[in-house]
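Predict structure. Chain length: 300.
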Amino acid sequence: MSIVPLPGVLRIEPASACNFKCRHCPTGLDLNPNIGIMTMETFEKIYARISKHRFRVIVPYHGGEPLLNKNFFVMAKRLKSLCGFMKTTTNGSALTENNIDKLLDCGVDLVIISLDGNSIAENDQIRVRADGKKILNSLKVLIQKKIETRNPLQIRVSGIIIPDSIEEIKNPPKTPAYITEFLGDLCGFIEIKMQYSQIWPGMIPLIPLKQPKPSNNFCDNVESTITIRWDGTVVPCCYDLTTISPMGNILDEDLESIWNNDKYRKLREGINSFNPPILCQGCVELYPQNYMVKQDIKIT
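Prediction complete.
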């Protein structure tokens, strides 16, 4: 069997732990049994195995809050040497002025800050423990420092809109006015990208499927991306927040061997034959109607 080269995108999880309890997230709903923060010892072992490779994109983020890892900025600087572009996502709670300065200096090319809903009140209702106003203030400081220092960091606000009914997903979600009104002219220096909230793997027992059978048999995530969790476990994609489908562990074997093993082969074959494995059952990549609505998570 021929060896398939590693994909161009590598995701590494600095922390699966999160200080929020988001209602649309398996981690926030305490459905994630694999919670932790990557140690420098684990990072060094992972880095030793991946440092012979070069990736198009590296994403130091998976499902938790990466800035909970006190070594995040050190890790990011090291990882930048292995890629052409690096991006991460944060809930914004740790964007102190000190961390903003470190973020602007660590090599991250794009930071995505999460804000949900159509108002600050709705954001804080969905993202339990969040302080939307405080996060917006931190975002404003970040943008202003970017401008003052002429830093090339790209900034994106990316959030979740939870519709009243599944019919609403036929139209793209609108940009929330509470964000644009707060930032004013500073919006010209960032991107705002909202999306509807999917039903994550691990949540399906709690939330009924909107679409029972897959309509697609191709997923780019298992072809172009490989993901390493905080403990070295390799999972197929960014949707596997709870390690439903462990493919192997990079602490035990090379990434190339995992990428080419029988588990990956069977996963791809299942998707291709319209018989996806448990991880992929209900995923919006294969089930385009499978988004949650407000009733699913008792947001009205």
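Summary: The chain has a mean pLDDT of 95.
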